[in-house]
Specification:
single chain; about 425 residues; alpha+beta; Dna Ligase, domain 1; Nucleotidyltransferase, domain 5; five-stranded mixed β-sheet; binds adenosine-5'-triphosphate; binds magnesium ion
Length: about 425
């Protein structure tokens, strides 16, 4: 019998569910993909429970139908502008694995992470992830894995991600009402990193930009740990609205024109390219040059990239980021994003993040707007592996602690 794992991305534009199956011999395959239009969210936050529950059920049912299995739980993504990242540090005295040696053990690591996590956050917020960046043992800085080192003083530098308690509870409630348990939840951008970023990129220092419908999620990583995370309240919906307002057409028509003829980098457009704007209220359709659409989209996309650049600039002055700018989300499908981001960030190192091939029946998920849900599925798969090793190992406490240390995107306890 195979083990079923599920990733669920509750986005502002679409809800996406992916089912993966792990066979007894350990082979992992994607067997079901389901999506549905999302109408119950604004900027990544649930504003209409009924609509969201219905859309989640639809996406899950579609995925179940494709895979032929019934699912009961999932790893869920958390998005929205209520999310915030901050860096913190904690210090403890090493007690050691046993009383005679000062050899750092799992308990010391747990304690130092708890110390680093002890920041004051308002009552209405909760910690979602605590991710170790590096450790300092006595005066030795930049240690990735302090286990078994001898020391007196252990210090941890961590990145903490917090979010609004009620926003998270509402999202979990929707999933529960769609008859699913939430095994774990994860920041959207962290999930996307899992599915599209290479280890080299994470080590060298890279920026992941997820251009969604209602939000743009950003994460900056170096030395395989996040340095900065934030969510901007802008996305593809604003771009569509701009077209709709400037051209006096409905949002649906504007969206279709954006998908068919949108572009955010003028040099990519040939001289004679034209777009048909359907007439409104009995007016005849008009033909306009495609450059007119680009003139609307490019400034908005430039603004989004500039906002990101501005927020990251102080960090870029102190840390060298020699990896890539990786763009995912539905907005990454807009022609010209790579060129425009390269211009704003003044670099050639920009690419679109497309999830890799995980086998199975369908390749539908091999698109940048599936980056988040695929990352969530990978998190679900990892979770399953950790659980199995906990079930089978006799060194009950040591092994899971080690696994969790390596999978930095998970909260440590
Ligand atoms: N081919 C395309 N060209 C331009 N834009 C596109 C294209 N395909 C999708 N988009 C845009 O991408 C956005 C949706 O992206 P995505 O599916 O990643 O959002 P989401 O995950 O539902 O939302 P969020 O992450 O903000 O909650 C929409 O605004 C849509 O118009
Ligand atoms: Mg999204």
């Amino acid at each position: 019998m195979s083990t079923v794992v599920v990733g669920l991305d509750i986005g502002t534009s679409r809800i996406r569910a992916i089912i993966g199956e792990i066979s007894d011999s350990g082979v992992f395959q994607i067997t079901g993909v389901g999506t549905s239009p999302s109408t119950g969210l604004r900027k990544g936050v649930v504003v209409n429970i009924e609509n969201t529950v219905r859309a989640i059920s639809q996406a899950i049912e579609a995925a179940e139908l494709m895979s032929g299995v019934e699912v009961t739980s999932c790893v869920m993504g958390i998005g929205g502008t209520h999310l915030d990242g901050l860096n913190s540090r904690g210090v403890v005295a090493v007690t050691g694995k046993n009383r005679d040696s000062r050899e750092i053990g799992p308990d010391d690591i747990s304690r130092v992470i708890i110390a680093a996590k002890a920041v004051v956050i308002p009552m209405d917020r909760q910690v979602i992830h605590v991710i170790p960046q590096s450790y300092i043992v006595d005066d030795q800085k930049g240690i990735r894995d302090p286990r078994n080192m001898i020391g007196v003083r252990l210090e941890a530098e961590v990145h903490i991600i917090t979010g609004s308690v009620t926003s998270i509870q509402n999202m979990i409630k929707c999933v529960n009402r769609a008859s699913l348990n939430v095994d774990e939840y994860m920041l959207h951008a962290l999930a996307s990193v899992k599915s599209v970023m290479t280890v080299d990129e994470r080590e060298l220092g890279s920026i992941l930009i997820d251009l969604g419908g209602g939000t743009t999620d950003v994460i900056v990583l170096a030395d395989d740990a996040p340095l900065m995370t934030f969510v901007l309240p802008v996305g593809g919906i604003q771009v569509t609205n701009d077209i709709s307002i400037v051209k006096g057409i409905s949002a649906e028509t504007a969206e279709r024109i954006k998908l068919d003829a949108g572009c955010c980098w003028m040099p990519l457009i040939e001289d004679n390219e034209e777009v048909i704007l359907p007439g409104v209220g009995g007016r005849p359709p008009v033909i306009i040059p495609r450059t007119e659409i680009c003139e609307i989209i490019q400034p908005r996309m430039t603004e989004i990239f500039k906002m990101i650049h501005e927020k990251i600039s102080p960090l870029m002055k102190t840390r060298q980021l020699s990896g890539n700018v990786v763009i995912t989300g539905g907005g990454a499908l807009l022609p010209g994003v790579v060129e425009l981001a390269g211009d704003v960030f003044n670099t050639q190192a920009v690419r679109i993040g497309i999830p890799g091939n995980f086998g199975g029946l369908t390749n539908e998920y091999r698109s940048p707007d599936y980056a988040t849900v695929l990352g969530l599925l990978l998190a679900a798969q990892e979770r399953q592996k950790v659980q199995e090793s906990t079930d089978t190992t006799h060194e009950v406490s040591a092994k899971p602690a080690f696994m969790r240390l390596r999978t930095w995107w998970k909260e440590l306890f």
